[in-house]
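Sequence and structure are no longer studied apart. To make this concrete, we show below a single chain and its fold as tokens.
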Amino acid sequence: MQRLLAEMFGTFLFFFLGFSAIATLVGFDSQFGEGNGTLLTMVAIPAGFGFGLALAITAFGHISGGHFNPAVTLGLTIGRKFQPMDVIPYWIAQLIGGIGAVAVQAIVFDDTVTDALVTNPGFDVDDWGAMVLEIVATALFLMVILTVATDARAAWYGVMAPLMIGLYIFTMAAVIGSTSGGSVNPARSLAPAIWAWEWSNIWIYLVGPLAGGVIGAAIWVGIVERGGRSGPSEDVVVVEEPAAEL
């Protein structure tokens, strides 16, 4: 139960900071005119999600493993770093934390903000193109996580994990957030969709990240197996040492 609570509150922290950045953009557009918040879109929102994730991992990663993302949980399971029996409970905890973060925005702001939290493809990208970007971005994300959080051979293994994982999300959101929507996290997209009851594009952000998590983990396992194991055999499935599950 402690691990599930840590996963729930960590997801809440992560999403609260990211969603708050989106709320700031909505307010800025309302005050100064739509389209004038380019700097916020390119910097503040990626920073909210990127640094939000890094801080959430720092605060709760040593307890739950700091997944805060159903695609990460699934990918770590494929990568043999997480127990399959714990996947569904983690997914539920992540979704509850996400809905809580949406609820805070709904209490403070009007529907304009909660509607803006719903993930949709951006300019010049159709639904299938957005899904391809989500698959690729999530696959690469899992490779980063599995290296910095589980591969003891890497010089930056362990203590650098929160920063490197958060940096990936910052970079990803900055470069594809305006095209694919930059979710790479089913809970990040599903929680606002449930609140707004908006389902038109949710399939992109469920299928894309989950498929990407599986693909990225499978590729990483293949590389590790060819290059040598990332650690002793007892570390392949980490349950008692959740910090290594990141």
